[in-house]
Write a structure and sequence with these properties.
The chain has helices at residues 51-59, 123-128, 187-192, 215-222, 237-247, and strands spanning 2-6, 12-17, 22-26, 32-33, 37-42, 66-71, 76-81, 86-93, 99-102, 106-118, 135-149, 152-157, 162-165, 170-174, 178-183, 198-203, 206-211. It is of the alpha+beta class.
Length: 248
């Protein structure tokens, strides 16, 4: 098996498989593949023992169904492209070093890949955290590839060292890192600061990876330019009017 990441802003992962080798990915991740690659879709993959195991994985942002791509009688290639501008990272998997990943981060993996929801150790993180605090738990033996949005900033936290992060910027961290939520102090800060009410609180020891682009910020940035029900741009009808004049 050979893997290569091509590109910069919108990278693609290309995996070359020899006969008998296999890569596991969520449904919908496939970009292209050679005709020698065979597909098998099931809930009984990536550590799930059946439908309910797949359902638990789906709650964490993964797919209910996972797809295994394998080369049977001759070598083949398969590619998985990034969905957002950012980076694709390769991480080694060991049973004694699980990772927690943002809910849409897992791209694919080879070997004994086990993907499920990360149950919060503290009740408050699960109840009040929202979707930004739902994480994927990734472990096993082999290699995995994770997609992080925007640029990636990594910190190694010492024992007891803490960092507070907007939940959308939490990309991935080692399971040795303690994860909780904390409330932003000050009523005016919570109501008018625009940063929400809760932040992720990450405490070492362990390594964390933060992502600079959040899906919510990207959505808010493009909403003004999307057409409204009348067909005009939300940023102002003058844009559509000017475009009509130029094309007449």
């Amino acid at each position: 098996m050979d893997a290569k990441i091509t590109g910069t802003v919108m990278p693609v992962l290309e995996v070359s498989l020899n006969p008998g080798e296999m890569v596991t990915a969520e449904g919908g991740e496939l970009s292209w593949m050679s005709e020698s690659i065979q597909m098998r879709t099931s809930t009984r993959t990536a550590g799930a023992s059946g439908f309910f195991g797949g359902l638990k994985r789906a709650v964490g942002g993964g797919g209910l169904f996972m797809t295994e791509y394998s080369a049977l009688d001759r070598p083949g290639n398969i590619a998985f492209a990034a969905k957002l501008p950012g980076h694709i990272m390769q991480i080694p998997l060991r049973p004694d070093m699980p990772y927690l990943i943002h809910r849409h981060g897992f791209l694919c993996g080879v070997g004994d890949v086990q993907l499920s929801i990360a149950f919060q150790r503290k009740l408050g993180a699960g109840i009040f955290g929202g979707n930004g605090f739902i994480m994927q738990h990734l472990t096993g033996t082999g290699q995995a590839w994770v997609e992080l949005s925007g640029e990636t900033v990594s910190y190694t936290l010492a024992q007891g060292q803490n960092i507070r992060v907007h939940p959308g910027h939490v990309g991935m961290f080692e399971a040795s890192v303690s994860f909780d939520i904390t409330r932003i102090k000050g009523i005016k800060n919570m109501l008018f600061g625009g940063d929400g009410i809760f932040l992720a609180s990450l405490t070492g020891p362990g390594r964390i990876w933060l992502q600079t682009l959040t899906i919510s910020n990207l959505a808010h940035a493009v909403i003004p330019y999307l057409p409204s029900s009348s067909g005009e741009s939300r940023s102002g009808g003058w844009i559509s009017s000017a475009a009509n004049i130029l094309t007449d």
